[in-house]
Amino acid sequence: MNIIYLQEMTATIQRLSRYNGGKSDRVKVQTLLETIEPIPEGQFWYIPSGSSIPPHVLEFLRKDAESKGEVFQLPMIPLKADILESTEDIQEQAIAGNLREVLDDVNKAILVSIMKRTELTKLPGQSKEGYFVYEINYEHNIYEIPGQQNHYEFVTQLPFSGLQLYPSGGRVELVVVLPTGAIVDSNLTKGIDENNAELQEYVTPIPATNKNVVSFEYRLDPTFTVHYSYNE
Fold first, then answer.
1. Which tens digit of pLDDT belongs to each residue from 32-75?
2. Cα distances (Å, whole numbers) of residue 102 to 35, 66, 158, 221
3. 131-152 tens-digit pLDDT
4. pTM for the full model?
5. Which DSSP symbol is given to 85?
6. How far apart (Å, rounded) are the C-alpha atoms in residues 38 and 59?
7. Going by DSSP bridges, is the β-strand pair 223-229/151-157 parallel, antiparallel, or unpaired?
8. Are strands 183-184 and 190-192 parallel, antiparallel or unpaired?
9. DSSP character at residue 50
10. Considering 21, 117, 152, 221, which has the largest number of Cβ atoms within 10 A of its Cβ?
11. Peptide bond into 75 cis (omega under 30)
């Protein structure tokens, strides 16, 4: 497991939904990581490729989530490259009639197909604490929530899969810059830690603009959801 001291993520959301009939916004993500030891060469992650997802594929993923009683969230989160290792038995599962296992494998394969395989980029030098520094940048669409016109959610998880926080002082920081006119839903915007405890979010207006910044800071493994909407 790769141990990180700090992961900083800045996500900037663009209101492309104004120009595409409300279908989707766009988020650009920049991430810096400080690791205790260098990440060995040859370790890969699947990250969002930036390509659009066909509507019928989105519909399949939504229906499958509903069949499990889950709220659909497209997990456009960097995934460790070993995610497909558990899908190798899909033919055996199909022959055995294990539909749930087949659908789970198909879900993973679909996610990988809309991502690209990459290594983290190591930056020259080290942090002031002597840690190794990496970066990874990507972008992807944020699709309108089904049945909720003009409502969107940016969902991410820190640290990325395959990374573990340093148990003594390791932390993650997330800053999300929302589009002009976006209204933050404080009830649905939250960070959830590994014990299902809710974290405090901070919503800060940017002076002289109609923009808000949502930020979190934490020291375990939270999942973050930023829910926003537009009045027009």
1. 999 999 998 888 898 888 878 888 888 888 888 888 887 776 76
2. 36, 16, 28, 29
3. 999 999 999 999 988 888 999 9
4. 0.83
5. G
6. 40
7. antiparallel
8. unpaired
9. -
10. 152
11. no
DSSP reduced 3-state for 83 = helix
Residues 28-38: b if buried by 16+ CB within 10 A, e if exposed: ebebbbbbeee
Output the CA–CA distances (angstroms, integers) from residue 101 to 86, 95, 97, 104, 199, in the order listed. 10, 11, 9, 5, 33
Residues 6+ apart with CB under 8 A from 141: 24, 25, 26, 27, 52, 53
Q: Which residues contact 21 (CB under 8 A, 6 or more apart)?
A: none
Q: Cβ neighbours of residue 203 under 8 Å, at least 6 residues apart?
A: 184, 186, 189, 212, 213, 214
Q: How far apart are CA 127 and CA 110, in angstroms?
A: 37
Under DSSP, is residue 112 helix (H, G, I), strand (E, B) or coil?
helix
DSSP category for residue 110: H
Which helix (H) or strand (E) element contains residue 150? none
User: Which are the contacts of 189, defined by CB distance < 8 A and separation ≥ 6?
Assistant: 201, 203, 214, 225, 226, 227, 228
Dihedral over Cα of 38, 139, 211, 200: its sign: negative
Q: Mean pLDDT across the stretch 196-215?
A: 87
